[in-house]
C-alpha cells in the first residue's frame, strides 16, 4: 500500500488548479476578474484612507502647535448666570423658549403702516442721506392723529413710545456685564431667531435716535447707541459667518445716528469721548479671524460626523450601520472627505493669518493686503476631487472678508470723524491735517486697511470736510461714491468709502 502511494502522481500546484478551474466557463473568468478588481479597489481605498488619515494628523498637529482651535465646541464660552446675562432678560429669552410666538418680532419692528409709506426708509451715512423724519411723521400721522404744529421728530418719538416698556426692560438688562444668547453649540444648524430680532431692534433704535437728535435730546440718542452696542456684544460670542454678517449690518445701522449727530453738531465733547471709547473696544478684524476659526471648527465637526456616519439603527445602540463598520476597518471611502478637510483647513488659515496680522497692528504699520484673497487661494480653486470643496468655499470667504473689511473701515472713519468734531468744538474749525488730531483727540491715526495708506482727508471751505477710504478697488477716486444700478446702494467694489455731511438741517445746533 505504501508503494502504491509513493507512485501516485504529484498534486497539481495551486496555479495549475486555478487555470483548470477557469477553463470551466466564461462566468468563472468574469467572476475571478471581478474579484481581483474588487480586491484591488478595496486595497486602493484602504491605502488612500491610510494616507489621508496620516496627512490629516500632520495637518491637525501643525495647526494645534500654532495654538489654533479646530472644533466648534472649543469656542463655547463658559455658562453665564442669568443675573449677569443681558440676553437672559425675558423679552430676549422668549425668542428661544417661544420661537413661534409673534409678539416679540412684531412689537419691536417698525410697523408696516409706516415702513410702506413713501420716503420712510432709514437714512444711510454711506451716501450722505439722512433719515427723512418728515416722511416718517406723515406716515405716523396717517394712523395716529397729532397736532399739525408738532415737529416731525416729536411725532416720531411719540409714535415710538409704544415700545417704551420693551426698551426700558432692555436698558435695565444692559447693565448686566455679560451678553450671551443661548446658542446650542452641539447643534449649530438650529434656528437663530435672535438674528432677525437684533436687526429689528437696531432699526427701531436708529429711528428713535435720529428723532431724539433732531429734538436736541442727544442723551437719549446716546442711550439708544449704547443699547445697540450691547446687542452687538451678545452676537459677538457666536463665531459663525451668519452672526458676523448680522453684526456688520447692525453696525451700519448703529453708525447712522452717530453720523447724523455729527453732521448737525448735536454731540457734546463728553458724549463724543464716550462714543470713541465704546467704538475703540470693537475690533471687527479680530472678530472676523475668530469667526473664520469657528467656521473651520464647524466644518471639521461636520466632516467627522460624515465620516463616522450614523452610529445607531432601529435595533438600538448595540449595532452600527455598514458605513460605520467599514470605517472602523479602514475600508470606507473617506479619503475624499479627509483630503478636502485638509485643504479646507489650509484655506481658512490662508485667510486667518493676514486678517489676524492686520487686527493686531497697533502701531499704524502697513497692514497685509486683504482685498485679493481669491487670487491667493487660486491654487485651491481646481476641479481635483481632493480640493473641490475648498474651492467652493473661496467666494463665500472672499465675501465675508470684504464685509469685515468694510465694517472695520467704517468704524475707523467714525472714530476719526468724532475726533474731527471734538477739534471743531475746541478750536472752532476742523484741522487742516489729520495728524493734528494726535494725541489730543486720538491716540493714533488708523490707516486705510484697503491699501495701507493714511485715510484720505480733504478740508474744504465753509467748515466742510471729506474723509474716505479708497475701498476694495484700491483706487483713489477723489471721494466719489459709486452706486449699484439695481439697488442704488453703494457699490463696495467701485468708488470710495466716504464719510461726508449733507447741508445742515434747520434745527438749531446743540453744542
Provide a descriptive summary of the structure in words.
The relative contact order is 0.09. This protein is elongated. The N and C termini lie far apart (126 Å). With 511 residues, the protein is mainly α. It is 54% helix and 4% strand. Among the domains are: 15-65; 78-267, no CATH class. Strands 1-2-5 form a three-stranded antiparallel β-sheet, covered by helices on one side. Strands 3-4 form a two-stranded antiparallel sheet. It has 18 helices and five strands. Strand 1 (456-459) and strand 2 (465-469) form a beta hairpin. Helix 7 packs across helix 8, helix 8 runs antiparallel to helix 10 (193-214) and helix 10 runs parallel beside helix 12 (241-263). Residues 101-107 and 311-332 have low confidence and may be disordered.
Give structural attributes:
two-stranded antiparallel ribbon; mainly alpha; single chain; elongated; 511 residues; three-stranded antiparallel sheet; 5 strands
> Percent range for helical residues?
40-55%
Number of DSSP E strands: 5
Quote the distance from N terminus to C terminus: 126 Å
Rg, Cα atoms, Å: 31 Å
Largest sheet: 3 strands, antiparallel
Strand arrangement in the largest pleated sheet: 1-2-5
Average pLDDT over all residues = 83
Low-pLDDT residue spans: 101-107, 311-332
The helix-strand sequence is HHHHHHHHHHHHHHHHHHEEEEE
Strand content: under 5%
Helix-and-strand structural type = mainly alpha
Shape: elongated
Number of helical stretches of at least 4 residues: 18
Amino acid at each position: 500500500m505504501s508503494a502504491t502511494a509513493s507512485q501516485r502522481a504529484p498534486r497539481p500546484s495551486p496555479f495549475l488548479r486555478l487555470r483548470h478551474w477557469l477553463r470551466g466557463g466564461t462566468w468563472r473568468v468574469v467572476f475571478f476578474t471581478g474579484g481581483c478588481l474588487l480586491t484591488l479597489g478595496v486595497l486602493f481605498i484602504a491605502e488612500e484612507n491610510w494616507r489621508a488619515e496620516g496627512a490629516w494628523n500632520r495637518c491637525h498637529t501643525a495647526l494645534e502647535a500654532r495654538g489654533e482651535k479646530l472644533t466648534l465646541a472649543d469656542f463655547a464660552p463658559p455658562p453665564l448666570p442669568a443675573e449677569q446675562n443681558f440676553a437672559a432678560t425675558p423679552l430676549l429669552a422668549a425668542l428661544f423658549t417661544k420661537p413661534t410666538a409673534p409678539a416679540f418680532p412684531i412689537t419691536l419692528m417698525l410697523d408696516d403702516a409706516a415702513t410702506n409709506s413713501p420716503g420712510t426708509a432709514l437714512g444711510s451715512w454711506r451716501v450722505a442721506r439722512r433719515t427723512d423724519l418728515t416722511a416718517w411723521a406723515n406716515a405716523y400721522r396717517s394712523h395716529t392723529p397729532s397736532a399739525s404744529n408738532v415737529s416731525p421728530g416729536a411725532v416720531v418719538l411719540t409714535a415710538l413710545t409704544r415700545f417704551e416698556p420693551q426698551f426700558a426692560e432692555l436698558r435695565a438688562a444692559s447693565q448686566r456685564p455679560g451678553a450671551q444668547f443661548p446658542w446650542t453649540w452641539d447643534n449649530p444648524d438650529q434656528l437663530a431667531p435672535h438674528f432677525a430680532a437684533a436687526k429689528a431692534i437696531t432699526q427701531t433704535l436708529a429711528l428713535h435716535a435720529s428723532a431724539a437728535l433732531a429734538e436736541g435730546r442727544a442723551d437719549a440718542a446716546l442711550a439708544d447707541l449704547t443699547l445697540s452696542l450691547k446687542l452687538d456684544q451678545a452676537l459677538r460670542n457666536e463665531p459663525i459667518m451668519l452672526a458676523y454678517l448680522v453684526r456688520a449690518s447692525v453696525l451700519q445701522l448703529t453708525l447712522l445716528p452717530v453720523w447724523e449727530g455729527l453732521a448737525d453738531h448735536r454731540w457734546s465733547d463728553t458724549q463724543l469721548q464716550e462714543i470713541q471709547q465704546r467704538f475703540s473696544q470693537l475690533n471687527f478684524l479680530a472678530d472676523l479671524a475668530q469667526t473664520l476659526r469657528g467656521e473651520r471648527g464647524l466644518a471639521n465637526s461636520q466632516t467627522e460626523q460624515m465620516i463616522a456616519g450614523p452610529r445607531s439603527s432601529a435595533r438600538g445602540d448595540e449595532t452600527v450601520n455598514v458605513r460605520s463598520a467599514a470605517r472602523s476597518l479602514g475600508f470606507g471611502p473617506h479619503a475624499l472627505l479627509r483630503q478636502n478637510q485638509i485643504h479646507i483647513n489650509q484655506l481658512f488659515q490662508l485667510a486667518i493669518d493676514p486678517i489676524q496680522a492686520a487686527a493686531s497692528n497697533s502701531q499704524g504699520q502697513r497692514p497685509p493686503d486683504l482685498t485679493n484673497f481669491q487670487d491667493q487661494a487660486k491654487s485651491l480653486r481646481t476641479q481635483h476631487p481632493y480640493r473641490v470643496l475648498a474651492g467652493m468655499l473661496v467666494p463665500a470667504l472672499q465675501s465675508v472678508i470684504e464685509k469685515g473689511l468694510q465694517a472695520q473701515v467704517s468704524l475707523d472713519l467714525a472714530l476719526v470723524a468724532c475726533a474731527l468734531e471734538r477739534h471743531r468744538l475746541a478750536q472752532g474749525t476742523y484741522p487742516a491735517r489729520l495728524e493734528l488730531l494726535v494725541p489730543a483727540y486720538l491716540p493714533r491715526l488708523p490707516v486705510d486697511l484697503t491699501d495701507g495708506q493714511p485715510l484720505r482727508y480733504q478740508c474744504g471751505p465753509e467748515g466742510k470736510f471729506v474723509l474716505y477710504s479708497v475701498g476694495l478697488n484700491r483706487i483713489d477716486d477723489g471721494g466719489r461714491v459709486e452706486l449699484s444700478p439695481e439697488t442704488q446702494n453703494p457699490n463696495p467694489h467701485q468708488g470710495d468709502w466716504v464719510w461726508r455731511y449733507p447741508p445742515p438741517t434747520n434745527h438749531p445746533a446743540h453744542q
